[in-house]
Task: structure prediction
Amino acid sequence: MSTQDTHQIPTGTEGRDVADRAGAVARFVVAFVLFVGGLVLMGSGMSGVDGGVWLFVGGLAASTLAFALPMSGATER
Result:
């Protein structure tokens, strides 16, 4: 047995690289912006402006997309 052999403790993150983490961070930032933007649009739609219904519907769609985006391609951990 050589001194070069090292025994690594498995951490459960084998096979994941920096690109996977960068993609997850980017997906989180996009989802967060969509969610906050959706809340702003829903609030604007309730303010009584012309076309407020469409602002509210757009905000609801943006918030729904913000929750669906991180779930796409998710695996059980």
